[in-house]
């Protein structure tokens, strides 16, 4: 395992699984140096913000979608990303049902675009936190310990 390049504690993130009625979930292909992988929408939790509010905000900022309700379904400790990049984060995963609306790539500098995939057939390479979150959804387990 590569040592952390900083003495900071892990950051707190949030990921949102948006699920259509047919079971497909929304994933985007990220750009940039940090984790240029496929991922569910998500980002950092701001100080004083609830997990639910952070998820709704990130979803709106990245896709223009808004959802009336989200539910916390999992917690991930993103040690693969730490091993690869020296960036350690912990992510809260929330689930929301897609209620309609056009998915717009509102941050084209950060994402190539958004597509729907079955959670059992994810595009690769896939971001550690996103993959773990989807595992929580499929397994019904709130947390999956990592080695």
Q: Low-confidence spans: pLDDT under 50, at least 5 residues?
A: none
Write down the overall geometry: globular
Number of strands: 7
User: SSE order in H/E notation?
Assistant: EEEEHEHEEH
The main sheet comes to:
4 strands, mixed
Q: Oligomer, anyone?
A: single chain
Portion of residues in beta strands equals: 25-35%
Based on secondary structure, the structural category is alpha+beta
User: What share of residues is helical?
Assistant: 10-25%
Number of domains: 1
Q: Indicate the mean pLDDT.
A: 92
What's the N-to-C terminus distance?
11 Å
Strand order of the largest sheet: 4-1-6-5
Q: How large is the count of helical segments?
A: 3
- What is the CATH homology-level superfamily? Nucleoside Triphosphate Pyrophosphohydrolase
CATH hierarchy, class: Alpha Beta
CATH architecture, by name, is Alpha-Beta Complex
Q: Report the CATH topology name.
A: Nucleoside Triphosphate Pyrophosphohydrolase
Radius of gyration: 14 Å
